[in-house]
Amino acid sequence: MARLGPGDVAPDFELPRDGGGSISLSSLRGKPVVLFFYPKDDTKACTEEAISFSGLADEFAAAGVALIGLSPDSVKQHDRFAKKHNLTVTLAADEEKNVVNAYGVWVEKSLYGRKYMGVERTTFLINPDGTINQVWEKVRVAGHASEVLAAAKAL
C-alpha cells in the first residue's frame, strides 16, 4: 500500500484496546489525534517511545489532542505492557494488520541480512477533520514525543 501523507484522509478504524472496549478514529473526529505505530510491546525502543508519550499524556490532553499507540500485538499483551511500565496512552491492537496495511506502515524490513515483514515506527498527526497534517517516518525515539507535542499544539 502506498504511504499516506499530509492532506490524505486518515483511514478510519475500530480496534480493541488495552483495558477493554474499543477505540475508533471516527469517534475522535473534531479533535486532533496523534497515532503512533510501533513494532512490538516490551521491546527496548517501543518501550521508550510509549513511556515518552505517556510522560507527556497530560500535556497532549490539555492541548485537546487524543493519543493512540498501535501495534499488531494482542490486547492481552497490551494490558501486560501498560501495567508493567505504568503507561497512560491508549494502546490499540491490530492483530489482523488491517490498519498497519491501510496506513502503509507494514513493510519489508531487514535485520542481519534476514528479510521479514514488520511495522515501521511511524507517527501520524491527524487534523480534527480527519485529514493527515504531518507524518514522521522511521522515527528515532529520543525527543520524538516532545517534537510531536509541539506540532500538535501548533494546530
Commentary on this structure:
There is one protein chain. This protein is 28% helix and 28% strand. A hairpin with a 5-residue loop joins strand 1 and strand 2 (22-24). It is built from five helices and nine strands; from the N terminus they run βββααβαβαββββα. The strands form three sheets. It has a five-stranded mixed beta sheet. The protein has helices at residues 44-55, 57-62, 75-85, 98-102, 144-153, and strands at residues 14-16, 22-24, 33-37, 66-71, 90-93, 106-111, 114-119, 122-126, 132-136. The protein is globular, with a radius of gyration of 14 Å. By secondary structure, the protein is an alpha/beta fold. The two termini are 28 Å apart.
| Assembly context of the chains | single chain
Average pLDDT across residues? Answer: 96
Describe the main β-sheet briefly: 5 strands, mixed
- Report the end-to-end length measured between terminal Cα atoms: 28 Å
N-to-C series of helices and strands: EEEHHEHEHEEEEH
**Which structural class matches the secondary elements?**
alpha/beta
Q: What's the Cα radius of gyration?
A: 14 Å
Helix content: 25-40%
Please give the order of strands in the largest beta sheet.
5-4-3-8-9
What's the count of strands? 9
- Give the percentage of residues in beta strands: 25-35%
Low-confidence residue ranges: none
Shape: globular
What is the tally of helical segments? 5
